[in-house]
Specification:
single chain; alpha+beta; 6-stranded mixed sheet; 12 strands
């Protein structure tokens, strides 16, 4: 198998064997960002995500992407655990840097770091962080990716692809220069990690405040197109997408063109896919816009038999792995 997510057909088969019980509200399923369990009168929402693409500011990435999974279910992130694997030869300052990044982002978002595991191991060649985030919500406020209904409108909050563009600008800087990407574009792309950043907690809060949200999904590996396919898989419906309405960062366009990548398949943390009742769409878009977030209506949920297509009838592309992974695989082979 190639680098990236496990193929959906294999993952679906493996997840079908998982044990369940009556308190599990959201269990293991393709497209769901987190699990949800009735716990002590509330709903415990739990997720885990590793950071394997990025080395620079890996602690920040680990907190942010796990927060996003909790936020996509309409919950508030509360507690964070991290497994930190360091390669042989790592220094004390290497470990301290990761811890500082995690602590800083947790403090900024009022999240408690409550535990984890650290290890120096020959198994990894660079730092790997696997985070686990716990959040909570009321059962009536819980959102699932599978909740999208036929007739719902799809909204994209934020532009794509913040995370992928920033990773490439930080990890592939020499190749970008070799392809004559202007230095100011590279610097702007690097700065995307802080502005707008990859955390979408406020996007989710704004949407929930407006009401009418039936589904949210955090586009990660495989980009916005893979996120749309995952949403369709989870809810069991089709999608009709306006390709021209998907807002792509200028820096993303330039960098992807230089490296021969498709922006729609680039890891896209920093944006949020929202399905909502048509009567609440204007309020959601307004709430996001008032917070300085680009918000666009990009399509609607349709009957399953109609497929997952752009407005012109073309089927959405299928990315076997994220474009960042494809780039690094190709680059390492050269």
């Amino acid at each position: 198998m190639k680098t990236g997510k496990l193929p959906p057909d294999i993952l679906k088969r493996l997840l079908a064997e998982a044990r369940d019980d009556a308190n599990v509200l959201i269990g293991p399923q393709i497209g769901e960002d987190a699990a949800a369990v009735r716990f002590g009168g509330k709903v415990l929402v739990a997720t885990t995500d590793p950071i394997t693409f990025a080395c620079d500011r890996i602690g920040y990435y680990a907190v942010a992407v796990n927060v996003n999974d909790i936020a996509a279910h309409g919950a508030e992130p509360r507690y964070f655990l991290a497994t930190i694997l360091l390669p042989e030869g790592s220094s004390e300052s290497d470990a301290e840097s990761v811890f500082t990044q995690i602590r800083t982002e947790c403090e900024r978002l009022d999240i408690s770091l409550i535990g984890g595991h650290t290890e120096i191991t020959p198994t990894v060649e660079r730092v790997v962080v696997c985070g686990c985030m716990l959040g909570e919500t009321e059962e009536g406020s819980l959102i699932s990716t599978s909740g999208a209904r036929v007739g719902d409108v799809l909204i994209l909050a934020g532009k794509v692809a913040v995370e992928g563009t920033s990773i490439l600008a930080r990890e592939a800087i020499e190749d970008l220069r070799a392809h004559n990407v202007p230095q100011d574009v590279i610097e702007r792309a690097q700065a995307l990690l802080d502005n707008p950043g990859i955390c979408v907690l406020e996007y989710a809060r704004a949407a929930m405040q407006a009401g009418g949200v039936t589904s949210m999904h955090d586009p990660t590996e495989g980009g916005i197109v893979t996120a749309l396919r995952e949403l369709a898989e989870a809810c069991g419906h089709g999608l009709r997408i306006d390709k021209s309405a998907i807002s792509v960062l200028d820096e993303c366009v330039v960098i992807c063109k230089a490296l021969g990548l498709n922006p729609l398949g680039l890891i896209a943390s920093g944006s949020l896919l929202i399905a909502a009742d048509p009567k609440n769409v204007d309020a959601i878009v307004q709430n996001l816009t008032e917070r300085g977030v680009q918000a666009s209506v990009i399509g609607e949920v349709i009957e399953c038999e109609q497929g997952i297509r752009f407005y012109d009838g073309e089927e959405l592309p299928l990315f076997e792995r994220d474009e960042v992974a494809r780039y690094f695989e190709r680059y390492s082979a050269e």
